[in-house]
Amino acid sequence: MDERLRALEIDDILCTTYGAPFVPFSTRDPLSELVNALLSHRTKNAVTRMAYGRLLEVFPDWEQVIDAPTDRLQEAIAAVTYPEVKAPRIQEALRQVKARSGRGLSLDFLADLSVQEARDWLEAIPGVGAKTSAAVLSFSRLRMPALVVDTHHLRVAQRIGLVPPKATLDKAAGMLQAYLPADWDGQRVYDSHQGFMRHGQRVCHWKGPDCAHCVVNRLCDFARKE
């Protein structure tokens, strides 16, 4: 079977199995989504939510975050991993947005760019890689068709054989995005991520994948070897 056709068949099965279309979990503006994404690196979702909420309690607007002493910001986000790294990184990201956008502290203008242009703009910010840029575009109210690939999504794609076994998140994201039709909108691309992610969480576990109950085992390289 053609690899792209296999990828799309798997995508369709997973989206159907887990109940697409999925309701977006965030309604944040893209700048707020950027801050949340920077907080979330190597941090559990529940901890990120708590830290983001605490951040907004201490600093009601992003200008205050820029102007705050870094140690005070670090204290506000102390629950996340590496707050001493993330605090100055968030401040620098906000400064860069303010200086480069020409529109103050807003990323709403990204809606006027292509996905690739918007990703390039974001990835010029120190600490922003492919996963973060995709999250800002896909998860925020922009709802742009940028494919997010997390560790669950990556594991499923590697086992199935859609990407090489040692592919990085960035490389895998590029390969998996290329399989998707160019006319898919933000919701459909979001659904693709959610389907793969949920399959990784519920069936294709890191240890002991449940191949016997996998809905795509006939299309999976790993399952064929078992």
CATH-assigned fold name of the largest domain: Endonuclease III, domain 1
Number of helical regions: 12
Q: Radius of gyration from the CA trace?
A: 19 Å
In one word, what is the shape? globular
CATH architecture of the largest domain: Orthogonal Bundle
Number of domains: 2
Report on the biggest sheet.
Answer: none
Average pLDDT reading: 97
CATH-defined superfamily of the largest domain: Hypothetical protein, domain 2
Keywords: Endonuclease, Hydrolase, Nuclease
InterPro entries: DNA_glycosylase, HhH-GPD_domain, HhH_base_excis_C
GO molecular function, one term: endonuclease activity
Protein name: Endonuclease-3
How would you describe this protein?
The chain is globular. The two termini are about 20 Å apart. The protein has two domains: about 5-25 and about 150-225, Helix-hairpin-Helix base-excision DNA repair enzymes (C-terminal) (Endonuclease Iii, domain 2); about 30-140, Endonuclease III, domain 1, CATH 1.10.340.30. It has helices spanning about 5-20, 30-40, 45-60, 60-65, 70-75, 85-100, 115-125, 130-140, 150-160, 170-180, 185-200, 220-225. It has twelve helices and no strands. It has about 230 residues and is mostly helical. It is about 60% helix and about 0% strand. α2 (about 30-40) packs across α8 and α9 (about 150-160) packs across α11 (about 185-200).
Question: Key terms for this structure?
Answer:
226 residues; mainly alpha; 12 helices; Endonuclease-3
